[in-house]
What we know:
The protein has helices spanning 4-40, 42-50, 52-80, 84-99, 105-124. It is mostly helical.
Amino acid sequence: MLPAPLIIFSTFVGYLAGGLTGAFAMTLGIFLPAFLFPIFFHSQLVSIAENPRVHAFLFGVAAGVIGLIAAVTVEIVRVSITDLPAALIAITAFAILYRFQGKFTILFVVLGSGIVGGLLQITVI
């Protein structure tokens, strides 16, 4: 659900096509517009976003993005929750992430879930 895999894949493709220079070019091509547009076109972007005629379009785009995120989430849950221990780990992780929304919570939840999953795997074998 995060763009990191796409960025990593693009950098890899750039490396395959042009070595280190290609990897840098692809990575720059992905990140540079995201930094340059807000810096140089801030006032134009704000005026576009505040235009009443564009609001319906922007709301539609936002709804489409939310729908896409929901569809990906459903697919990830469907594929990854294969048994009761996985379901319990997922439910516990979601509950902890919902309750504690600090900076390091995600790190601790991922590490803790991995440790619990690893311990379950050791005890099963």
